[in-house]
Amino acid sequence: MIRKLKYIIPAVILLASSCKKSLDINTDPYSPTSVSENKLLPAAQLA
Amino acid sequence: MKKLLQSLFIIMFFAVTAMAQDRTITGTVTSADDKQPIPGVSVKIQGAAGGASTNAQGKFSIKVGTSAKTILFSSIGYVEQAKTIGTSDVINAVLATDSKQLNEVVVTSFGVIRQARSLGASVGKVNNEQITQVSEPDVLKTLQGKVAGVDIRASQGTPGAATRIQIRGNTSFTGDAQPLIVVDRVPYSNDQVTTSNQLGGGGAYGSGFSNIDPNDIASIQVLKGSGAAALYGSRASNGVLLITTKSGSATAGKKGLEISLKSSVSLEQIAGLPELQNSFGTGSYGNYSASNGSWGPKFGGTLKEIPAWPAYLAAYPELFPTGKVPYQAYPDNVSSLFKDGYVFENSINLNGGNEKSAFVVTASQLDQSGYVTNSNYNRTNIAVGGSSKLDMGLNIRGNLSYSRSTQEGGFYGETQNGAPSLFSRSLFLGRNWDLSLPFEDKNGNSIIYAGAGQFDNPLWSAKYNTTNTAEERFIANIKADYDITKWANFSVAAGTNVNSLARREVIEVSSRAAEGLGRLTLDDYRKQEIESTALLNLKPKINDDFSFNGLLGFNFNQRTSTRQVDRGNQFIERGIHNLNNTVQQSFLIDSYQRRRIFGVFAEATFGYKNYAFITATGRNDWSSTLPVDNRSYFYPAISGTFIFTDAFKIKSKVLDYGKLRVSYAKVGRDASPYGVSNGFSFNTNFLSVPNASANNKANDPNLKPEFTKEFETGTELSFFSQRINFDFTYYNKISTNLIQAIDAPASSGYEFYNTNIGQISNKGVEIQLTAVPVRTTNFNWNLSLAYTRNKNMVDKLKDGVSRIDLAGFFASTGYSAYAEAGMPYGYLRGSTSARDNEGNLLVDPATGALIDNTEPSIIGDPNPKYKLGFTNTFSYKGISLGVLLDFTKGGSVYSTTIQNELGRGTSKLTEDRETTWVIPGVYGNPNTFQPILDANGNKIQNITRITTNSLYFNGGGASTFATNGADEWSVYDGTVFRLREISLGYTLPKALFKKTPIGSIRVSLTGRNLWFYTPNIPKGTNFDPETNSFGATNIQGIELSTAPTVKRYGFNINITF
Fold first, then answer.
1. Which NCBIfam families match (chain B) (predicted)?
2. Which chain A residue has its CA at the smallest distance from B559's CA?
3. For the sheet containing B892-895, what is the strand order?
């Protein structure tokens, strides 16, 4: 049993260690968090 | 595809006829207790396919091959028995009664099999026969009335329309409140893709679950509470529907090939047409006009002819040489709009293998045509599954399924909201409208009987205004497991569910909608879900008294969706429906979403003497949709069960099993993607200048996960040798930190703010009762009762938020569904008539009509008080009769269909035009909303008489009880009794096909929704409160000229080889 677990446990650790980076995806690729002022000005003038 | 299926049928038929059997063994199976024969016992040859069952006299006959060694006898409530096959051709068996549920197992989270007696939370189960024998292509609808705690609601009666499922109430404001659906280890979304707002049109959109082939389902288990479902993580707070398909459950050990074929044909019709008056034509107050309301003069009076309707006269002057048409009733003009629909379904299932490998193939084809012209639903499903035990000890199983469906239909909704609806007048046509006349002019434009542009001719709308959807879904998954030791098993499973939907909505030129210029909307949606799980399952043997089951697991889930909705307005060339043929195009939606969750979990079950169990579980999730500091969240659960009949050694002839169970669970749920930071979006170029602006919604950077805490307790009791089984559950569920966008102050620069804002609670009782009142040699009567009561309440909202508009429409009157602290979720709020402090209606003395309040208030609660399903099954020899009645108590519904049937004077209820009416109430001041007092300071009873016309449609806009009336008068109590299902089946005697490879043939006649009774809905409207405009969404109790439900008569034949 112990002998077999030595393969399983590293695999789980490896999987878990890759998790953190994989979670940094919460930014909408179609909605930038900043845009240049020359893009904002026409919309502001219209409003 | 159809040809492929036909070929498969033929090939398989000849294949099985080639199979040979050597001899026949007969015998009788009796009970060890009372020595009586036992009917329905399953008799199988170990390791071989097929089998037989005992007849009413307990006798059986089975063919066996030369290699057959052992014959197995099994029946619910008895201990399975194996007998060696010797030289004798007669084998009798005596079965001992099984101690209740001693060996019964259930599938729990991640497919882990557990003893039913060790479970601390309620689990419901439905088998394949309950799904496939009811002439219902939608699997969810087949669950109606069968499982306590489960609320299934249909939406519209046209083919492929969405069905909503909810378990133990609503736990979210606008998020998904439906349970997690897991098909063979892979989550399966029941999303409804809504292209056009169903308030102002929109189709009878389907939901994802309609892609499932009922013929491939082996069983459905319902993990109702958080206690049973907690391991599934974020989406388990709504319960879990755990579906095992035949293709996903291929089990090694069978030998040979087993084939089953199923064909069914059903006729479907509109379930309820309104009773119409045929005494008065269009007009108002007894005077004729080419209007919508049938408040004109009486037929057969002095008015013999009327001017031909202007649109018709202009389009077809040759049809009206005198320019006049007879003024007469067309009693069948409503019913003539609808036709008989049908459902054809064919399915083949192949199941075979040997001791080490097995495979299952299921292929099905469904063709459905609805009662509305051009409403169709077709579905093709193919599923393949297999399993194999490798010599090295590894077990591998996997399955792959593909479905393709197409839904064709029209638009629905209320015309007042600008809908291109084919039901805008269909159920309340002017009584003198001749629907046999053309519905389009010579240029193909809609022509109608009232003023131009008021509505679309329903026949024209059915032909030209179309919403067509094609959907494809692939599901694939594979699982490998390995016994590390005798008590430890490690498994890895991975799967994907890919769904793509393409929809084209066309509003043709001359429609009331889209300014009559035509509109094309294209919606492309794609969703991929990936799920993988690693499990270490530990079952070490401790000693005879103590047992332990352990589970350690890792779970990964990723959901990715993309959606593009493009619209073109104003067709350049009529009849060409692509974007290039439109004058103006716009991109309505172009979105991409991806979310991930990682979870680790553990479960430990300790048992004592097989009568006491304690289970503790814990799961920690890491979600991509939450802020970094809050993305990790832990939630525990604990449950206990105690089988007191075993613990106290109760040996009673009355009570033979008693179990108590209790559980407490907490389940976390993450947010929607991209809800924690603010962004910008690009707008359409202005004067060729690109520009961008901030999104209108600000997000809370400290968003926290939602949590649901649930306490559950219950008991399972069995009496008289399992003749009566009783399962009672009480639960109390509180969902906190609920996430919702609320209105933001204008000074913030945003319209909305997305944050944690509130709490919802659900408390309820579930009772599941099964009984066998009569069991004789030839005759059996089984009954089952499922009772569901859930009380939902929004407990609190964030300070400063009085209520949330869930539907966002009718803003001018405030009529909508809302969430508000102290009120049930989704309660209806709208305009009401004014009353005095004693509750008397205030009547305007000038008109005799009602005085309406200026502010909206509560007008209804769409949540039913309770639901009851009652199934009776009678069997006599090979004949069986099953009847499912269900009852829903309460649940308000706002209906514009009823409002219009009354307001437009078409209902039979409006036929009495001779009587005048006095609204019960007192005179009031329409300015002060106070009662008018006489000289003595007393209120003055209303004595002003009004006509029937004014009672339902008051000229001048005064408020009465239907058109132009306050919203509250269009809200009805949805209490309904229903004959949900009836089936009469007959299993043909085996003697008829003794010398053939046929194993069994069963034929059945089925009926569905054949009758319903609504005591609190106006008689004669025949309105079914089960209809709902918003499909599988959280908004319930709102009906805006929807397509009524259907009733269905079916014939099924099942053949096994």
1. OMP_RagA_SusC (TIGR04056), SusC_RagA_signa (TIGR04057)
2. A25
3. B971-973, B892-895, B1038-1039
